[in-house]
């Protein structure tokens, strides 16, 4: 791979990072023992497969032009051993130890002079027991969908397909060096630039209208950042989600967002916290990639803004409120509301990101209270070194002023939930994880109950 400029949104993520707010995505993949015998050396297998992914050999370097810009370039001194490590877990509860260590590792920023990613093999020791792989990818390297495509290269099934493909990357030919734009081309470029500025102004106005004069949220969600991280996982029955969807309408994502809202309500009331006067606002990322569209390496994101109805005591009406709000968001499109800040970032010049990142990062609390994102995974069964993938818990970064990020992925008939929180603000994060399971069970029970007169009227 040669050199390519960071897309504007990638550059924004690169400059938003600080020691207390690392901007990497994560995933904790848990594997069962290989059936019928000892497993091979997983560490060496990880290193071999990671080194074969071209994107993982690229690092970020500054460029002279455009001003404030940066570019991806091949790391000539690339050594995969700098990126893939083994971490020993204490004996005992494997998942408790793995999630605790993964939370600690998610605190640490990725070294910026190297390709911005890390992998850790988490195991209690060589043998036949379960093990986990923690993958960290800087958000500048990939959005959720692209991160899945990159990280999937470690799995047996994906690696086998990749090995059968040609390793050469074909690129479209560049215009001849003597090419110069004519009058029509110049006019077209100028018109396109004016249209782009106009769209940016429209998006910016929408973001300003949707922002708040004072930070929202209350209690733990509004606590100051400590720079610590904690990970808690939860597993939801994917079929139960579909049963609720079929009974109540909307999408599976609507059901999961309602589960998050109900779980927050249960968790807040359970810890004796007063429910907020204004419902907490969730930023719900939306991919701007299109199936069958041209492959694009940079982040392609917008987002919707959703008030999570934690003040509503009835679970069915919470789901209905979420469904109506999401339908309204989709009708308006991804260029409306505070969620369009990602689109706005994609339309700003590089110099604005370099100097405006601290201000933009501090403004996150004015826009939303937590992040809730769904990450699609391949539907095929996956394995590593013959060991079947048991579960995969996605993890999202915390912006400045944010205490909680919720990420969800469906695999193997389950929806796996990764809750990443500020460790000091949410020391009882495990209770929130348990509340998600309880809330889905309550929704499933309601889905089988007949509608009340009041429900029919609404």
Detail the topology: elements first, then pairings.
Elements: E1 4-5, H1 8-16, E2 24-31, H2 42-51, E3 58-62, E4 70-74, E5 84-88, H3 94-107, E6 117-123, E7 131-138, H4 144-151, H5 156-164, H6 183-210, E8 230-237, H7 238-248, H8 252-270, E9 281-287, E10 301-307, H9 315-332, H10 341-345, H11 350-362, H12 364-367, E11 370-374, E12 383-384, E13 387-395, E14 404-411, E15 414-421, H13 429-447, H14 453-457
Helix pairs in contact: 1-11, 7-8, 7-13, 8-9, 8-13
What do you see in this structure?
- By secondary structure, the chain is an alpha+beta fold.
- The chain is built from 14 helices and 15 strands.
- The protein folds into two domains: 161 residues, Chloramphenicol acetyltransferase-like domain (Chloramphenicol Acetyltransferase, 2-Layer Sandwich), CATH 3.30.559; 246 residues, Nonribosomal peptide synthetase, condensation domain (Chloramphenicol Acetyltransferase).
- The protein has a six-stranded mixed β-sheet, sandwiched between helices. A six-stranded mixed β-sheet has the order 8-15-14-11-9-10, with helices on both faces. It has a three-stranded antiparallel β-sheet with strand order 1-4-3, with no helix packed on it.
- The C terminus is likely disordered.
Query: Structural class, please?
Result: alpha+beta
The backbone outline, from C-alpha atoms, is globular
Helix content: 25-40%
Number of domains: 2
Kindly provide the radius of gyration, computed on alpha-carbon positions and rounded to a whole number of angstroms: 23 Å
Low-confidence stretches: 166-214, 291-295, 338-345, 451-458
> Any idea what the CATH superfamily of the largest domain is called?
Nonribosomal peptide synthetase, condensation domain
In what range is the share of β-strand residues? 15-25%
**What is the averaged pLDDT score?**
79
Could you give the distance between the termini? 57 Å
Number of strands: 15
Please count the helical segments: 14
Query: What name is given to the CATH topology of the largest domain?
Result: Chloramphenicol Acetyltransferase
Provide the spatial order of strands within the biggest beta sheet: 5-6-7-2-13-12
CATH architecture classification of the largest domain: 2-Layer Sandwich
């Amino acid at each position: 791979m040669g050199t390519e400029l960071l897309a504007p949104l990638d550059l924004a993520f690169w400059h938003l990072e600080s020691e207390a707010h690392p901007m990497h995505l994560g995933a904790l993949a848990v594997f069962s023992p290989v059936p019928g015998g000892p497993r091979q050396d997983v560490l060496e297998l990880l290193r071999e497969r990671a080194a074969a992914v071209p994107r993982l050999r690229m690092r970020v370097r500054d460029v002279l032009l455009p001003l404030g810009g940066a570019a991806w370039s091949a790391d000539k001194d690339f050594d995969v051993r700098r990126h893939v490590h083994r971490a020993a877990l204490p004996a005992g509860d494997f998942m408790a130890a793995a999630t605790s260590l993964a939370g600690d590792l998610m605190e640490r920023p990725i070294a910026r002079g190297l390709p911005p990613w890390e992998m850790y093999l988490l195991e209690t020791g060589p043998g036949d027991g379960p093990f986990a792989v923690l993958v960290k990818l800087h958000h500048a390297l990939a959005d959720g969908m692209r991160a899945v495509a990159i990280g999937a290269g470690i799995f047996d099934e994906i690696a086998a397909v990749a090995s059968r493909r040609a390793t050469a990357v074909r690129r479209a030919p560049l215009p001849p060096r003597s090419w110069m734009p004519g009058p029509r081309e110049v006019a077209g470029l100028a018109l396109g630039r004016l249209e782009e500025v106009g769209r940016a102004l429209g998006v910016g106005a929408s973001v300003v209208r949707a922002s708040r004069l004072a930070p929202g949220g209350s209690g733990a969600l509004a606590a100051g950042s400590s720079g610590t991280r904690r990970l808690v996982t939860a597993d939801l029955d994917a079929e139960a989600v579909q049963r609720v969807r079929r009974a109540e309408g909307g999408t599976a994502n609507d059901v999961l967002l309602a589960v998050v809202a109900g779980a927050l309500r249960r968790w807040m009331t359970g810890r004796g916290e007063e429910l907020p006067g204004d419902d907490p606002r969730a930023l719900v990322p939306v991919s701007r990639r299109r199936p069958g569209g041209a492959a694009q390496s940079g982040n392609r994101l917008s987002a919707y803004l959703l008030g999570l109805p934690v003040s509503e005591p009835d679970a069915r009406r919470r789901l209905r409120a979420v469904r109506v709000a999401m339908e309204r968001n989709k009708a308006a499109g991804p260029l409306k509301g505070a969620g369009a800040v990602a689109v706005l970032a994609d339309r700003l010049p590089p110099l604005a990101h370099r100097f405006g990142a601290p201000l933009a990062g501090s403004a996150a609390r004015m826009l939303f209270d937590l992040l809730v994102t769904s990450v699609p995974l391949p539907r095929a069964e996956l394995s590593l070194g013959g060991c079947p993938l048991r579960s995969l818990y996605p993890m999202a970064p915390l912006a400045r002023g944010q205490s909680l990020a919720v990420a969800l992925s469906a695999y193997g008939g389950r929806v796996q939930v990764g809750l990443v929180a500020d460790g000091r603000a949410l020391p009882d994060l495990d209770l929130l994880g348990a509340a998600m399971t309880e809330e889905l069970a309550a929704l499933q029970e309601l889905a089988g109950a007949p509608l009340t007169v009041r429900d029919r009227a609404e």
